[in-house]
Task: inverse folding
């Protein structure tokens, strides 16, 4: 995976990531150039399986300024490209209570194709978020103390 164009930081805060998948995205017209310019937002976006196809909802791709009248709607459902066997396996897991598909990042692979890193996630409870915050703070404090000890020598 190359450097991500955009990441969904909210996903890591609100969801527990169980599995990750790489899938292509069906784009129209100047959307590719707009993504290359970093004009995509994944906040509040999610994926759903409809009739054997994975569809990405609420992903905002800003119109490319030089495309003029050829631009498409910025927020529209976009088809994600995955193998049929993967889709069937995902649909059985999603039908279980509490699982959802969330896009984590958008990037371009080595061949120049736009890819979406999709994750099978389970929503975090409030106490899970508190535990994560507490763990982060203790790690930060430990690193600070270790750095102070190294500098004393």
Result:
């Amino acid at each position: 995976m190359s450097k991500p164009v955009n990441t969904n930081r909210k996903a890591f805060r609100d969801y527990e990531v169980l599995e990750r998948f790489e899938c292509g995205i069906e784009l129209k017209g100047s959307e590719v150039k707009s993504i290359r310019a970093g004009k995509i937002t994944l906040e509040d976006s999610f994926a759903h399986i409809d009739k054997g196809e994975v569809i990405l909802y609420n992903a905002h791709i800003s119109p490319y300024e030089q495309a003029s009248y050829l631009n498409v709607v910025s927020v529209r459902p976009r088809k994600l490209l995955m193998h049929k066997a993967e889709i069937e396996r995902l649909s059985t897991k999603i039908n279980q209570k509490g699982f959802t598909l969330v896009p984590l990042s958008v990037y371009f692979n080595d061949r120049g194709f736009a890819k979406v890193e999709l994750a099978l996630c389970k929503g975090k409870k409030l106490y899970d978020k508190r535990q994560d915050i507490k763990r982060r703070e203790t790690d930060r404090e430990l690193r600070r103390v270790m750095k102070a000890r190294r500098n004393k020598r």
About this structure: The chain has one domain: 4-123. The chain is about 35% helix and 35% strand.
